[in-house]
Design goal:
Blueprint lengths: L7 H11 L12 H4 L3 H11 L1 E6 L3 H14 L4 E6 L2 H13 L7 E5 H10 L2 E2 L22 E11 L1 H6 L20 E3 L4 H11 L1 H13 L3 E2 L3 H10 L4 E6 H10 L5 E3 L4 E11 L5 H12 L1 H11 L22 E3 L6 H14 L4
Parallel strand pairs: 1-2, 1-3, 6-7, 6-8, 10-11
Antiparallel strand pairs: 3-10, 4-10, 5-8, 5-9, 5-10
Helix pairs in contact: 1-5, 1-6, 3-12, 4-13, 5-6, 8-9, 12-13
Length: 354
């Protein structure tokens, strides 16, 4: 079952795929690509000339990664369409339903990737140098191309916190205390985070914690980037809706305005990069994906974005990721729709957004 409610166009494509329409899960589409050597793949990719990448990476970072790829493989340009994962997911579904195959490679939260897999929008592909997944990540065979891990942390502004006479939080539970009323932000749509809480402490305790947090009247925020930039500016003082890699990057550059706490267990979710169904530049698509999940590509990802790589030796920020110190609490990209709907309603009801 899909994790989120799918756009109508994506559901229509799923029905087409189920009835034997072109693509299905797409594994047959890539059978010829799997047999090519890197040299042959590069030669074919140069003939195609480019790869189109639908990505959630911020534009400047995506451009830097594209430039690093083109430097290694001259003659293969990376064209970027940047956006939020929900909008990119909907766009890909609408385009393919209309039989407009514009995208080669999709990247985003694995929960949305699962939607696209179920709808037949992505094709199964296992790169020759793909990542070995940590225990706890549950992804279907052929769709295990994790480009990064996303962790949800507590971020706070140490300078403004001191001005308010508040002690830095050490856990999410700290933000249920009276002195934090109205002083932090939360995301009432963050089912990944809520599911991680449930996996850590059980449904009843997680639900009670969310209700206690909501009773402290947090500001609601819909963007992980906005959550940390607001805290950096000093209002609100803290957030429980920050991605670890973003908070740590800002903490390095502006330590007086940003600090973070990694909860233990640490809410964690995989981010994936996959090949689109009927990719217009299939050889360039595979070449780019091969590079992005390789050690060299992952080093570029970490260096450029500060994201967490599952590939050892890529320089992942130790302030953000150390499973021996902070045990990952993995969310499930394939969470059944009934569970997802229940968790969504519980979050929205608690935070008064139902």
């Amino acid at each position: 079952m899909a994790r989120w409610a799918l756009p109508v166009a994506v559901l229509a494509l799923a029905a087409t795929a189920a009835c034997g329409g072109a693509g299905g899960n797409g594994s047959a589409n890539n059978s010829s690509l799997n047999s090519k050597s890197t040299a042959d793949l590069y030669s074919a990719a140069k003939s195609e000339g480019k790869v189109t990448w639908y990505t959630t990476y911020v534009t400047q970072q995506a451009q830097q990664l594209g430039a690093a790829f083109t430097k290694k493989y001259p003659g293969v340009k990376v064209e970027i369409l940047q956006g939020s994962v929900d909008k990119l997911t909907a766009r890909l579904g609408v385009e393919q339903t209309a039989r407009k195959f514009n995208d080669d490679v999709f990247q985003g939260d694995a929960s949305y990737g699962t939607q696209l897999i179920n709808a037949g929008n992505l094709v199964a592909y296992t790169p020759p140098d793909g990542p070995t997944l940590p225990a706890g990540i549950d992804l279907p065979k052929g769709f295990q191309n994790v480009d990064a891990v996303l962790t949800t942390v507590i971020a706070y502004n140490p300078t403004v916190l001191k001005q308010h006479g508040l002690t830095p939080p050490t856990s999410v539970q700290d933000l249920t205390k009276p002195q934090w009323k109205g002083q932090f932000s939360a995301d009432d749509r963050n089912v990944n985070w809520y599911e991680s809480l449930i996996n850590s402490v059980g449904h009843d305790r997680a639900k009670a914690l969310v209700q206690a947090l909501a009773a402290n009247r947090p500001t609601l925020v819909e963007s992980h980037t906005l959550a940390v930039t607001q805290v950096q500016s000093g209002e609100p003082l803290a957030t429980i809706a920050a991605y670890g890699y973003l908070a740590s990057d800002l903490a390095k550059r502006t330590p007086n305005a940003m600090a973070l706490v990694n909860p233990n267990p640490l809410p964690s979710a995989p981010d994936v990069v996959e090949i689109a169904r009927n990719a217009p530049h299939p050889n360039a698509a595979r070449l780019f994906l091969d590079w992005l999940v390789s050690r060299e590509g992952q080093q570029a990802v970490v260096r450029t974005t500060n994201r967490i790589s599952v590939v050892p030796g890529t320089g992942t920020d130790p302030a953000v990721w150390n499973p021996k110190t902070w045990k990952p609490a993995w969310s499930s990209p394939g969470l059944p729709a009934d569970n997802f709907n229940t968790y969504t309603q519980e979050l929205k009801t608690a935070f008064g957004a139902a």
